[in-house]
Each structure stands twice: as C-alpha cells, then as structure tokens.
Design a protein that fits this description.
The complex is a heterodimer.
Chain A (H helix, E strand, L loop, with lengths): L10 H9 L3 H9 L3 H4 L4 H23 L8 H17 L4 H23 L4 H21 L1 H4 L24 H23 L1 H11 L3 H4 L4 H27 L9 H14 L6 H15 L5 H18 L3 H15 L1
Helix pairs in contact in A: 4-9, 4-12, 4-13, 4-14, 5-6, 5-7, 5-12, 6-12, 10-12, 13-14, 13-16
Chain B lengths: L4 H29 L6 H19 L3 H24 L7 H23 L15 E4 L2 E4 H23 L1 H11 L1 H6 L4 H27 L5 H16 L4 H21 L6 H13 L9
Antiparallel strand pairs in B: 1-2
Helix pairs in contact in B: 1-5, 1-6, 1-8, 1-9, 1-10, 2-3, 2-4, 2-8, 2-9, 3-8, 5-6, 6-8, 9-10, 9-11, 10-11
Classes of the chains: A mainly alpha, B mainly alpha.
Chain lengths: 330, 287
C-alpha cells in the first residue's frame, strides 16, 4: 500500500485523511443521476448496472479487502432474490421490507457458511465457495415447487415504492430506487473499510497468521465481513427480484459468480470504486455487443480476462492510478 | 443373482474411472506448482474434438483417434504453458483463477464457433456396443473397456511415478519444490513435462467421455466442476487420492441419481463439502 508512506505518528489523522472526499469521487456521484435527463431510454439498463455495481461492491469487500477468492458469491445474490421474491408472493409486496428480508436471509446464509470460510485458504477455500454456490443452485433447482425451478419464480408482485411511485415501463422508479440503495450501501462500505476494522481486514489479507498476534482476531473478522458482504449481495439480489418482478434460476449460478468476479477484477479489486467501474464497463459493453452472437461475446470476455491478468494486474483503476505517479516523477 | 446395487456400483466405478482420467493431471500439476488451472477441461475438450474431427472428416477408426487426442491435447497445453502460464507461477491464486477462466471462456466460444453448439455424435465400433449378462447384471461393454483402460493407465502412471528417475523428480518437487531445485532438479522442466502429460491424459479422457457424457462446447465448464471436486476431495498431488476420490464421487453421483433422483447433483456437492470439512487437504493430501 503506497498510503503507508504518508503514515505519520497520528494514526487517527491518517484514517481521517483517507476518508476525505476527493474531486473525482464527488464528480462520480454527481454524474450518477444524469441518465434521468440524458439517457432516459436506458434507465432499465442503468438500474441493472446500479444493482450489479452493488453486487460487485459486496464481493470487493471480501475479495479486495479480506483476500477471500470466492467462486460462489452468487449464492447470496440468489438467496436474496428468492427471499424477496417469495416474500412478495406470500406475505406482502411492500418493497423496502422485502429488501430487508432479502438482506437478512442472505446474511443468515452468509453467517452460517462463514464458519466454514474462515477456517480455510487457497484452493480449499475456492473450492468451498464454489461448492456452497453449486449446492444452493442445485437446491433451488430441486425445490421447483417453491422456486419454479428453471422456469423462474412467477407471481412476484411488488407494490408501489413508498406507496406512491409506480413501477413504470421506462425504469424511472427502478433506477432511482437502485441508485439510492447503491449510494447508501456504498457510504456504509466506505465507512467500514476506512475504519480500524477495515484496516485489520487488509492486514488479514496480507498475513492472516500475524494479525491475531497484534490483537486482531482473523477468523472473527473474516466471519463478520463475510456476513456483511453476503447481506449486501442479498440486497442486490432482492433489488433485481423487485425491479424485474421475476427471479431466474441463473441468479444462483456459477456463471453469475464468475461474471461478478470478472467485473471486480476488471475495475480493480480492493479499491472500493473498482467494482462500480467494472460493473459499468462490463454491462455497457455487453449491452453494446448484445447484437453479436453470445459465443463471440464470451470469446472476447476470455481474451479480455487474459489481457487484464497479463498487462493490467490491478484493473482499470489500478492502471489509471499509475499515470499521476508517472507525471509527478517527471 | 446379484441385487441391483452391484449394477449401480459398476456404473459408478466406470464413471469414476473416467473422472479419474480427466482429473489426475490437474491434481499432479496443482500439487507440483500450486497453479490453479481452471482451463484443464478445455484441454480435455481439445481431445474430444480431435477424436470427433478425425472420425467424422477423415474416417479414422475410434481406437486410432485416442493416441491423437492424447498428443494434440498435450501439444496445445505445452504452448499455453510456455506463453501464458509460466509468467504467473509466482502470482496470486486470484490471477491464476482469472487467467485460466479466461482461457476456458475463450475455448468454449472457439469450440462453438468451429463446431457449433450441438452435441457431437460419434460412432463406436459395433463390438463396443451391447452388454454382457452376468448373474442378472447388465455389464456394458464400453464401460468395461473404460475401466480396463483406466486400470492400465493407473498402473503405468504409478509405475512411472514410483519407479523411474523422472517420477522421483516429480515426487521430490511435489514434496518440496525449493529443496528439489536446490538438489539440481530442473523443476520448471519437470513441471512442463508433467503438465503436458496431465493435459494429454485429460485429452484422452475427453475423447473417451464422448460416449458417456456427450461433447458440446460447454464441456470445459460442466466437467470442470466435477474435476475440481475430485481434485479437492482426493488431495493435491496424490494419484491414489484422485483415484479414491473419483470412485467415491462417481459412485455417489450414480447412486444418487438411481436412488434419490430428485436430489440431482446435490449429493456430490454435499459429499465434497463433508470431506473438505473433515480433511481440508483432501482424503490423501498432505498440505
């Protein structure tokens, strides 16, 4: 971390300096409502991007900060989606409570599995995340009486947001709703990773054995962040269920887990905005290229991944952040 | 007269043997270099398509295509190892996962582009069809053949690893890579040869699997999951572990589909999680 170079004797001052809002950050969020005015034909896409960005942010918390490589993060996305969808079908369709139900269900699954996750690293860990994801996918497929199986969950009925905003065809409500949720949870994640807890997580990522020696319990911290991340992914899933009024089986699938991992790494893991930028670039590119054959799309995704790993190891943001340093050096 | 459980066992073992062929190479290379190669089944798919292509367009007999499936998959893997894998040996798990997922994605797309997305039909020779009836059981000829091939390959592999100089180098490198290179073993070269051998075996497995699993472009991902499960359950770098795990997974999968079909693939994931919880390094893994 280059930031340690600026580390003065005043640790609190250092933490505070890191949390200050930069110009680029402010601009990014000021630009976020622009689609309402200039791209109103693309609001449905914009809302899906905001939701995917939230999902990517949740993965970045465990991947970029705690160093947990997960190939099964869609498990929590799908759990949240099914929980919110079923809640609206069988209890009531008020969206905000549905969101909370999705978050709680995913958080519970995340908490239960975190006891497994925190014990392992490396390949075993990757395999366990993959296995848990596959297990939930197979369970949702088997329980087709409840989930609709491969036909998707039908009969999701969401009431107007706050009792007054109807779910319009253009996606005004959907985008506003998703964007506000993304922003709120982003603020939460930002606060979290700039806290001493966030610093401890980065320490665990670098050396999980040494951190307990200086008083940061690795496993307890990993369990906490894994649960938080799962709940956030659950919110993203619930948002998809509510804005599209259906839940597809592939929301739990391996492809979704792989794609979200690609987005985070494309943007740059461990950079807070990495997942957001990655989701934006990936989703826009997929929309632009949706005219071409899907197998061609996957070919270019594969080539892109190889190129990112070989030439841009810290993602788009990592590549960009190298430029100012070079200018300064001149 | 034997009860049907023996039939399930036989099919499960045949299935497990196929999984063993597909996964043993990955297990050994993972144990050797700790390189997480998620493109392993892409090399198996290369073998499958080589067999299909030779039979369909050049009229080769099935058996003649098997050595070619092995060699072409091995040759392609050497190319990838040289160009893409080697710079990443010292990088993180995540980089290796991403690079190899990228290769797998690209291979799926390339296979779809050249061969179409449909299942590839193959014509086995007539004497491979049918089955023997032994004590009330149906023993499929092709499944018997699969088991025989796998047993021969296992004996060859174990013989190579346990009895030859090269095998001793591989074992030394798996146990302690630094120490081995300190003793003058060229670990990179050992790894390259092992990698090619493992990918070749995967290619052979891919060709043999067409009759059982079918072959379409998604092969690289669908069976990757099974292969990873076998490797994780068996333990890295352990041939005996891979064999045991492959048979365990094969028998559980077939038994699950036979006795509790509504569970689907649920059972083997459960078996994997249970084994990994019990022994994180796999059944016979040491690390």
């Amino acid at each position: 971390m280059p930031a340690t170079a600026h580390m003065g004797p005043d640790a609190v001052g250092h933490l505070k300096a890191r949390t200050r809002w930069g110009a680029a950050e402010t601009l990014f969020w000021l630009a976020a409502p622009l689609p309402f005015y200039f791209l109103s034909d693309y609001l449905q896409l914009a809302s899906q991007i905001a939701i995917t960005a939230l999902f990517a942010l949740s993965l970045d918390l465990i991947l970029g900060y705690a160093g947990i490589v997960s190939l099964g993060h869609a498990a929590f996305f799908g759990t949240g989606a099914y929980a919110a969808g079923l809640f609206s079908k069988f209890v009531w369709g008020e969206p905000l409570t549905g969101l909370i139900v999705g978050a709680i269900m995913s958080g519970l699954v995340g908490y239960a599995t975190s006891f497994i996750i925190a014990r392992f690293r490396h390949l075993t860990l990757i395999m366990l995340t993959l296995g848990i994801g596959l297990l939930l996918g197979a369970a949702a497929n088997s329980a087709s009486w409840l989930t609709g199986g491969s036909d998707g969950l039908q009969g999701v009925n969401i009431w107007p947001l706050l009792g007054r905003f109807n779910w319009d065809l253009y996606g005004y409500t959907a985008y506003g709703y998703s964007l506000v949720m993304l922003f709120v949870l982003f603020l939460f994640a930002r606060r979290l990773i700039h806290s001493p807890f966030g610093l401890a997580l980065r320490g665990i990522r670098e050396n999980p054995v040494r951190m307990p020696a200086i008083g940061a319990p690795s496993r307890a911290h990993i369990r906490t962040v894994y649960t938080i991340s799962a709940a956030m992914a659950g919110v993203a899933g619930a948002l998809v269920a509510q804005t599209t009024q259906t839940v597809a089986l592939d929301s739990l699938g391996f492809e979704r887990s792989a794609e979200i991992l690609i987005m985070v790494v494309l943007g740059g893991a461990g950079r807070l905005y990495g997942g957001l930028v990655g989701a934006l670039v990936f989703m826009v590119a997929r929309d632009r290229f949706s005219g071409i054959e899907p197998e061609h799309w996957y070919f270019w995704i594969g080539v892109l991944l190889i190129a990112v790993v070989m030439f841009l190891p810290n993602g788009i943001l990592g590549g960009l952040s190298r430029f100012p340093v070079q200018w300064r050096a001149k | 007269m034997l009860p049907p459980v023996f039939g399930v066992l036989f099919d499960g073992i045949a299935y497990g043997m196929l999984l063993f062929l597909l996964s043993v190479g990955l297990s050994v290379t993972l144990g050797l270099m700790n390189f997480v190669n998620l493109a392993h089944c892409a090399f198996a798919m290369v073998g499958g398509y080589v067999a299909v292509l030779l039979m369909r367009d050049f009229g080769w007999p099935f058996f003649a295509t098997l050595p070619m499936a092995f060699s072409v998959a091995a040759a392609v893997s050497i190319l990838f190892e040289r160009v893409l894998y080697r710079p990443l040996y010292r990088r993180s798990d995540l980089d290796q996962v991403l690079l190899t997922i990228g290769i797998a994605f690209a291979s799926v797309a390339a296979a779809a582009y050249f061969f179409g997305t449909q299942q590839q039909p193959i014509e086995l020779p007539n004497y491979m069809h049918g089955s023997y009836h032994v004590m009330g059981l149906d023993i499929g000829v092709y499944r018997l053949f699969l088991i025989a091939v796998s047993v021969v390959i296992t004996i060859l592999l174990v013989g190579t690893i346990e009895l030859t100089r090269f095998g001793a180098q591989v074992r030394a490198a798996v146990d302690n890579q630094r120490m081995a290179s300190g003793l003058g073993i060229n670990v990179e070269r050992t790894f390259a040869i092992t990698f090619a051998l493992g990918s070749g075996l995967a290619g052979l497995g891919g060709a043999l699997a067409i009759e059982i699993f079918g072959l379409d472009p998604n092969f690289a991902f669908t069976y990757l999951i099974y292969v990873l499960i076998v490797v994780a359950v068996g333990g890295l770098g352990s041939i005996a572990g891979s064999l045991a795990a492959a048979i365990l997974i094969g028998v559980s999968d077939i038994a699950g589909k036979y006795y509790v079909p509504q569970l689907g693939a649920f059972l083997i994931y459960l078996v994997m999680l249970a084994v990994l919880m019990w022994r994180p390094a796999g059944l016979l893994g040491r690390r």
